[in-house]
């Protein structure tokens, strides 16, 4: 009886930590072209987004859109995004797993 109880506790604890992956944003190609679909950028000088804080990504996209952050490519892309798009991209990239050594 005791092993069953311990198994139950273990599974219950796991259930509290496992989260579902967010849905893939329909326009992911806009960001993936430079930042990678998995958030690991392949171009030098392009930041990795995998595992970034979701609110940080939302704020950054809004700042690019408003012009508070100056990067022509990001301003052009972010200008076409709705609030829902920004939230979806931020949720997607925040949920991606950063790879060891993948920092810029």
Give the tally of β-strands: 0
Q: Write down the overall geometry.
A: globular
Q: Please identify the oligomeric state.
A: single chain
How many angstroms does the end-to-end distance come to? 52 Å
- CATH domain class name: Mainly Alpha
With helices defined by DSSP (H or I, 4 residues minimum), what is the helix count?
5
Topology:
Layout (H helix, E strand, L loop, with lengths): L1 H16 L11 H7 L18 H13 L5 H8 L3 H13 L9
What can you see in these coordinates?
- The chain is an all-alpha fold and 104 residues long.
- The chain has a single domain (24-104), classed as Cytochrome Bc1 Complex, Chain D, domain 2 (Orthogonal Bundle).
- Helix content is 55%, strand content 0%.
- The protein has 5 helices and no strands.
- The chain has helices at 2-17, 29-35, 54-66, 72-79, 83-95.
- Helix 3 packs across helix 4 (72-79) and helix 3 (54-66) runs antiparallel to helix 5 (83-95).
- It is globular.
Summary tags:
single chain, globular, Cytochrome Bc1 Complex, Chain D, domain 2, 104 residues, mainly alpha, 55% helix
Quick recap:
This protein has one domain (24-104): Cytochrome Bc1 Complex, Chain D, domain 2. It contains 5 helices and no strands. The chain has helices spanning 2-17, 29-35, 54-66, 72-79, 83-95.
